[in-house]
Amino acid sequence: MTPEARTIQESAGEQILFDPELVSDPTRELFDPAIWGDRAAPHTEGRGTVWQLESAEGRWILKRYLRGGLVARVVSDRYFFMGYERTRMAREFRLLCSLCEMRLPVPRPVAAFIQRSGPALYAGSLITQYLEGTQSLSSLIRSGHLGEAPWAAVGSTIRRFHDHGVIHRDLNASNVLLSEGEVHLIDFDKGRLATPSTNDSWKQANLRRLYRSLEKISTGQASDLGDHWTTLLSAYAEP
User: Fold this and answer.
1) Could you give the angle at the alpha carbon of 45 between the alpha carbons of 47 and 79, nearest 5°?
2) Residue 7: which pLDDT band, with cuts at 50, 70 and 90?
3) H and E: helices and strands count for the chain
4) Active site amino acids
5) Per-residue pLDDT for 87 more than 50?
6) What pLDDT is stored for residue 48 in this prediction?
7) For FRET with 184, which of 99, 108, 154, 195 sits at 20 to 30 Å CA-CA?
8) Is 48 helix (H, G, I), strand (E, B) or coil?
């Protein structure tokens, strides 16, 4: 079903967005792994740590938004505040709601938490449903199974997102999840929907970003990458 977003102002300086079908009592404790105790397990792939939560509604994934690059050495998890709806958590939560409405293969958003930090900064977290039985394209390749990836399905899936105008700002192999016969995309932080005036160059930039990530992780298998990439592009090009 399509997720429904509701907003509550829990207290001054905090806001929670949530899906009332999945969360009946949205509080800040929902986003604290320590409160979950042994029902929270850390998982690391990519930047930082995400947590797998065992809820009554099924498994969820909790991520804390962290900065990258040089600025992360100074401020690891704070961003400049310009209104709740412009925070990274709110934007990703609402974008995922839209993508679910489009029936695109993404994790369903559960809840987002935004916390002000003084007059100018904020931090926050996002919870999404866990995609059962999936493995990242990155993990599959690193395990030496480059040829077992469903390259045509990956290309077709990316084309679906592009046809809907979905701009993924970090399309890398870790953000492509694979399961039996299905391909999902995750991590839409800073993602957005293209407008009629948006130049189509972002589509090729998306593909180049993915290829660069594949080059980095296909050590020892690089000679085969070109053929698989051609398969992906061929499927992507099909109408």
Assistant:
1) 20
2) confident
3) 6, 13
4) 170
5) yes
6) 61
7) 195
8) coil
Judge whether residue 6 has pLDDT over 80.
no
Please, are residues 174 and 216 in contact by the beta-carbon 8 Å criterion?
A: no
**Residue 70, pLDDT above cutoff 50:** no
* In contact, 122 and 114? CB cutoff 8 Å: yes
pLDDT at 71 exceeding the cut of 50 = no
Q: 132, 59 in Cβ contact below 8 A?
A: yes
What H or E segment, with its residue span, contains residue 49?
strand 49-55
Q: How far is CA 208 from CA 29, 176, 197, 211, in A?
A: 40, 14, 22, 5
Asked if the model's pLDDT at residue 18 lies above 90, the reply is: yes
- For the cut 90, the answer to whether the pLDDT of residue 81 exceeds it is yes
Helix axes of 201-217 and 222-237: crossing angle, nearest 10 degrees: 150
Spatial separation of the C-alpha atoms in residues 144 and 84, rounded to whole Å = 43
> Can you list the domains of the chain with their CATH numbers?
6-129 (3.30.200), 135-237 (1.10.510.10)
> Residue 74: its pLDDT value, please?
46
Kindly list the distances between the CA atom of residue 88 and the CA atoms of 40, 65, 77, 222, in Å, as whole numbers in the listed order. Answer: 24, 8, 11, 35
Contact 53, 40 (CB under 8 A): yes
Q: How far apart are CA 184 and CA 87, in angstroms?
A: 24
Residues 6+ positions from 151 with CB-CB distance below 8 Å: 228, 229, 231, 232, 235
32 pLDDT more than 90: yes
List all residues 6 or more positions away from 94 whose beta carbon is below 8 Å from its beta carbon.
5, 17
